[in-house]
Specification:
This protein is of the alpha+beta class. The protein has 13 helices and 19 strands. It folds into 2 domains: about 45-385, 3-Layer(aba) Sandwich (Beta-lactamase); about 395-480, Lipocalin, CATH 2.40.128. The longest helix is centred in the N-terminal third of the chain and has 20 residues, at about 35-55. Residues about 1-25 have low confidence and may be disordered.
Length: about 475
């Protein structure tokens, strides 16, 4: 290199090495700090502060999750009103029936390990489980029935434990179950049952050979990093919010008695906080094989999120442990919880990898009210901020040889290039625009169909010696070129 050029190169190198930070690539701003998202969080924050005061809630903690991150969390009011302890994102609350999701997760782990099948009779693993049938020819209650609340079992054992808060032991539950009679035959009605999920927890213990609490701690909580969550919390558990009874106008709230669900632990006993539950929510958005923090593989998670029982309104249903509902065009998956002194809700949109957690230490709270507002205010901004721009497609000029009408016995489809994509339509459909099937190239004269009744299958073109297409084969059907 000539000396002059070498000197110029050294100057440019020196400038590059001493360039001010502004010239360097800037790291992407955290999602919650991006202007549109931050604006919506500020509005939600102001609204929550107002609601907690105007509704005289004692304490509330909320977390918003996007994919693998807890993007925002905050506490309002008091975890302990008498001691003036502030509620935070680390405050523990009893999560009541959200416990059922951890029981369902354990069952699915054991299923994936080949240790049980969902359609096995419960009595295969619990010989003492002998419930009187409503009808003599009713099928046996299976593990799937327990997880989907379609077992026909009564909601509770024949005791008043939700009144006197004296919950039965496991041994008492096992003894009383044999005296129980199903309310419905399996799969006749959806019937929510704490008893059913308590029985599911006994299946976990019997199949794994470990006590229920130990199994959940070792195989669910610890791998997920949920270090603060307790399967069997105590009144003295550090960080646990005090639960309060329903508000009586003009009077201070009374402190609720502490409960130990004992034999009903798999259905209602856990305590957790926003930070830990965010890890469980993030699990719902992951894919890939099981291992480490991926305590269930992606296929199993999606299986749990699918509707197993659809309610008559077609707007909500039951998955494997999870509740599922439609809100507009959005499918939400989650569960709520209610125990003396506490209310809780987690809800997710798996398609958008967005979730909200709300925990409250008042029995008359409505956590879904707050969850819905978080989805409404913050959800769209997060979706916009995380949207991956789709590059505008560019049509291959060679695709023009495929354009035309193809037929078989007067049933036509038409191939055309639309907005840069090779597309198949049904020209005489009631709505031909909705009949569109996009054709994505995967090889010579071969395309994958996207949309329609043969979504994901291949479509190929045959051409003559001039290069003109003469026939298309879509899946196992073919059509000849008409014009």
């Amino acid at each position: 290199m000539p000396p002059r050029r070498f000197a110029i190169a050294l100057v440019w190198l020196a400038l590059a090495l001493t360039a001010p930070p502004a010239m360097a690539a800037q790291p992407r701003q955290p999602l919650a700090q991006q202007p549109e998202v931050a604006a919506t969080i500020r509005v939600l924050d102001a609204w929550l502060q107002e609601m907690v005061v105007s509704r005289e809630q004692t304490g509330l903690s909320i977390g918003i999750v996007y994919d693998q991150d807890l993007i925002w969390a905050k506490g309002y009011g008091f975890a302990n009103r008498e001691l003036r302890q502030q509620a935070t994102s680390a405050t523990l609350y009893r999560i009541a029936s959200i416990s059922k999701l951890f029981t369902a997760t354990a069952i699915m782990q054991l299923r994936d390990a080949g240790k049980l099948r969902l359609d096995d009779p419960v009595s295969k693993y619990l010989p003492w489980f002998q419930v009187k049938k409503v009808e003599p020819d009713a099928p046996a209650i299976t593990i799937r029935h327990l997880l989907t609340h379609t077992s026909g079992l009564p909601r509770e054992l024949p005791l008043h434990y939700w009144n006197d808060l004296r919950f039965p032991s496991r041994e008492e539950m096992m003894r009383l179950v044999s005296r129980e009679e199903a309310v419905f035959p399996p799969e006749v009605e959806y019937k929510y049952s704490n008893l059913a999920m308590a029985i599911a927890g006994e299946v976990v213990a019997a199949v794994s050979g470990e006590p229920y609490a130990q199994y959940i701690e070792d195989h669910v909580l610890r791998p997920l990093g949920m270090q603060s969550t307790r399967v069997t919390p105590e009144p003295t558990t550090p960080g646990l919010a005090v639960g309060y009874r329903k508000r009586v106008p003009g009077e201070p709230r009374e402190v609720e008695d502490f409960i130990d669900a004992r034999g009903l632990t798999p259905a209602a006993n856990l305590a957790s906080n926003v930070e830990d539950l965010a890890r469980f929510v993030s699990l719902q958005f992951r894919d890939g094989p099981a291992g480490g923090a991926q305590i269930l593989n992606g296929f199993t998670l999606r299986e749990m999120h699918r509707v197993e029982w659809l309610r008559p309104d077609w707007q909500s249903g039951q998955g494997l442990g999870f509740w599922i509902r439609h809100v507009g065009s959005q499918v939400r998956v989650g569960h709520d919880g209610a125990a003396p002194g506490y209310k809780s809700q987690i809800e997710t949109s798996p398609a958008e990898k967005f979730g909200v957690i709300v925990l409250v230490n008042d029995y008359d709270a409505d956590p879904l009210f707050y969850v819905n507002q978080a989805f409404t205010i913050v959800g769209p901004a997060v979706a916009k901020a995380t949207e991956t721009p789709r590059p505008r497609p560019i049509a291959d000029p060679a695709w023009s040889q495929y354009e035309g009408t193809y037929t078989w016995k007067h049933v036509d489809v038409q191939i055309m290039v639309l907005d840069g994509e090779l597309t198949m339509i049904v020209p005489d459909a009631t709505n031909p625009w909705e009949s569109r099937v996009r054709l994505t190239p995967v090889g010579p004269r071969t395309f994958r169909m996207v949309g329609g009744g043969m979504d994901g299958e291949l479509l190929t073109f045959d051409v003559d010696e001039t290069g003109r297409a003469t026939r298309l084969t879509a899946g196992s059907y073919y059509r000849l070129r008409k014009r």
